[in-house]
Every structure is written in C-alpha cells, then in structure tokens.
Amino acid sequence: MGELDGRITIITGAGRGIGFGIAERLCKAGAEVIVAEVNPETGQRAVKALTEAGYKAWFHEVDVRKPDSVENLVKAVVDRYGRIDILINNAGLAKIGPSETFPLEDWYLQIDVMYNGVFLCMQAVGRVMLQQGKGVILNISSIGGLGAWPMRQAYNSAKAGVISLTENIGCEWARRGVRVVSVAPGVTRTDMLQQMVDEGIATLTKYNDRTPMGRVGEVDEIAKVVQFLVSDRASYITATTVTVDGGWVAWGNLPV
Ligand SMILES: NC(=O)c1ccc[n+]([C@@H]2O[C@H](COP(=O)([O-])OP(=O)(O)OC[C@H]3O[C@@H](n4cnc5c(N)ncnc54)[C@H](O)[C@@H]3O)[C@@H](O)[C@H]2O)c1
Predict the structure, then answer these.
(1) Quick one: which of 45, 135, 213, 256 has the most CB atoms within 10 Å?
(2) What is 8-242's CATH number?
C-alpha cells in the first residue's frame, strides 16, 4: 500500500520538469494524477510515460491564467471522481531582464501564471475541498520569493506572492480541514534551467558555486519533500513554506 493510495491529485504544469517529477513520485506512492498542462504535447507525453510505467494518470488541458479554463478542469475532475484530494500549483516560467525596460507582456505573463493563476486554482479547488472538509494544496514558490535577485522582478514578486497566499489562505482554511503549504526550491536541474543556460542567461558553474552544497538540486529532491508535505505525515503543517535549496538562502550575501 502506498501512503497516497487513491488520492486524486491535480498537478499544474506537470508536462515536464519539477511538475512531472512530482507526478512520478506521487503516482509511485499510489496517487491518481491529473496532468493539468497548457501544452497538450508535453502533457500527453507525460501521461503516456506515467501510464506505461503502470501508474494512474490522465491529461487535462488548462491555462491557469484563465478562470473558465480552471473551472473546466475542476468540473472535469469532480464529475469523474466526485472529489479532489490534492492540488499542486506548479505551472511556471521564467523571464528575466532589466526592470527599466522589462517588457510589460513578460511582466503580466509571469504574474498571471505564477500568482493570479495560483489564486484561481486555489479558489476553484478550495471550494471543493472546503465542502469535503478535507484536502491539501501545495504551491511551488522559489528561493526567488525569499530574497532579492536583480533582473527577476516579476518572477520573484510572483513567488513572494505565493508564499503570502500560502500563509493567508492556509490560516483562513486551517480549521476547515484544508492544509495549504508551499515549497521553495533552489535552482533545480530542469528544462527551464537548461533553457536559461542555452540562452546565456545562466551558467551552471555559477549556480553550483553559489550553493553551499556545491551543486544545483535534482527534481526528485524537490518531489520527495512534496510527497511528505501532501501526505498525512505532515498533518500538523500548514500556512508555511519549506525551503529545499542546498543552503542557498542561508548563505545570504556572503561572497562565494
Ligand atoms: N527549475 C528551477 O530551478 C526552479 C527553482 C525554483 C522554483 N521553480 C518553480 O518550479 C515550477 C516548475 O518549474 P520547472 O523548472 O519544472 O519549469 P518547466 O518550464 O520545465 O515546467 C513548467 C511547466 O508549466 C507549464 N505551464 C506554463 N504556463 C502554464 C499555464 N498558463 N497553464 C498551465 N501550465 C503552464 C509549462 O508548459 C511547463 O510544462 C515553476 O513554478 C518554477 O517557477 C523552478
């Protein structure tokens, strides 16, 4: 028996990267996962990989920026299962650049996906969970939400907002059976990171050196903390953020 046996779990942005890694982990623990992705190609590929490994997963296209799209997702899951046990708000993207010339479309896009989108999903799924009197919502923040990092104004503001949403709504729903937690990963080896390296925005050596542990994180190192937090083992944890960063935030401003 897995500790998440039969738990109906929505993971946004689970087509690849950290979201897919979380899907694999939670499936392995017995959860049934809805890969809620804006990109049908990666979403369907993820589901194929999961089902071929013997897990229970299906794809639902969603754009977390759009209230109707989020409502459709929630309706489809409730129609099929009659309940939602776990929501992971993971969808994201990173665009960086100088604030004085930062394109407004990139500002709105990041705030829409990683802040407004998180609230829309929390609200729509939260209504179902509150009625059940039970549920867990886990939001993926970032070390970017915990401190300054030039050129990442929109990304970091959205991620700081996620920490605040987790605290505020976590406290609001704490006596109604719904736990809300957040994980702030450090730099993690995913396609998003590789894209930034390819575009010359990031170098792996710099990130490795900046991390007290001397290396970036692996997806499963994030996913296994997520598994713990959404499981009953974390029954007394709510309205807080767990940092999984190899020591990055603690390092502060000291030179490498
Ligand atoms: N990789 C890192 O170093 C790192 C560090 C800290 C936090 N994070 C956070 O972890 C999460 C996952 O990051 P990743 O590195 O796996 O990124 P990724 O780009 O590999 O995956 C993100 C997924 O989100 C999906 N997505 C984007 N916009 C969406 C939308 N509007 N609706 C639904 N899905 C959408 C994408 O299609 C993609 O599949 C993000 O929230 C990111 O900010 C990543």
Answers:
(1) 135
(2) 3.40.50.720
